[in-house]
Amino acid sequence: MKPIKIDWTVWKPRLLYGGFFAAVFLLALRQTFPTEAVKERLILEAAAQGWQLDADSLSPAGVVGVSANNLRLEDRNGRKLAAESVALTLRLLPLMVGRRSVAFDVSIWDGRIRGTADLSGAQRRYTADVEKVDLAAATPLRKATGLELLGTLSATADVTLPEDAKGKPGGRVTLGVKDAGVNGGQLPVPAMGGSVSLPKVALGQLTGEIAFEEGRGNVKKLEARGGDAEVSTDGLYFVWQPRLEFSQLFGRASVKLQDAFWNRSGTAGFRSVAEMALASAKGRDGGYQFQIFGSVGHPQMRPLPSGQ
After folding, report:
1. CA–CA gap between residue 3 and residue 117 (Å, rounded)
2. Which of 39, 75, 126, 308 to pair with 258, CA 20 to 30 A apart?
């Protein structure tokens, strides 16, 4: 079989003209992208989900996309979420095979979240990489948990969610928090008729892994090592529902405070409360056992008598 010969004197001009046309088309598409129309659509979509959306400015992003500075969201209950910048771009390759998908790039809480999200299909895949998010700056987390969280969060997620609310999700999330800790706050303990005021507790390195299986989010691993307290969970999971913050939470946790923590000034009052209220939950290793319940958005703990 004779090799195919390409006459570049013929094809080179064609390729150059084709490339020039494609570049001009994409540039014109970007420059004429209807950012104001997109802004109005985003506002309407957010309102349909119960959120009020606002931003300082919008501009084109990527080939087909939009970028917003100082984006602000607020729901009917007054909960607020603000991001320094958000960029959304339509992914062209999936579009060529009939799938609508966007890439997002969010600067928030001194960190960055990048990933992709499918907008069509019975199964919608979402991926995300979280880089150096400062938990101390995450005001919504502080309001939800009642605790002033510390640490720098990094995480990866690859999750497939069903369009049908009765469907089952799949995928996995891994996370790590460097210099994790709690800088005080109120820990809800219903068995004590209220909450306990926590002093500052360093947790060291926190690692976690969640797998979505059979309609549940199973926490395969959630532990903290190297700080004032060693924390681990057992059998922790939540039942999936589209509004994740209301997903019911079940499981156990073990918390063992180190001697160095008790010897620190300012912990005497907390120690007396802990020894009185949690005596029945203290195990042989000196750690306290808790049952976890409530919801993902509002987790609660109660002492679990030793041996149960």
Report:
1. 44
2. 308
Q: Is 1 within the bounds of a domain?
A: no
Tokens of 149: 């969280």
Tell me what the mean pLDDT of segment 215-233 comes to. Answer: 91
Q: Are strands 170-189 and 288-294 parallel, antiparallel or unpaired?
A: unpaired
pLDDT at 30: 55
Could you give the number of structural domains in the chain? 1
Dist CA 260 CA 164 (whole Å): 51
Q: Please check whether residue 221 lies inside any domain of the structure.
A: no
Asked if the structure places residue 55 within a domain, the reply is: yes
* Alpha-carbon span 82 to 74, nearest angstrom: 9
Per the domain annotation, does 80 fall within a domain?
Answer: yes
Both tokens assigned to 167: 């469907």
What is the three-class DSSP state of 300?
Answer: strand
Identify residue 233 by its one-letter amino acid code.
T
Q: Which domain holds residue 80?
A: 36-102
Picking from 85, 84, 114, the residue whose alpha carbon sits closest to that of residue 102 is 114
**Model confidence at 221: pLDDT above 70:** yes
Residue 77 φ/ψ, nearest 5 degrees: -90, 5
Phi, psi (5° rounding) for residue 262? -65, -30
Distance set, CA 62 to CA 39, 56, 59, 85 (Å): 16, 19, 10, 14
Task: Read off the pLDDT band of 212 (50, 70, 90).
Answer: very high
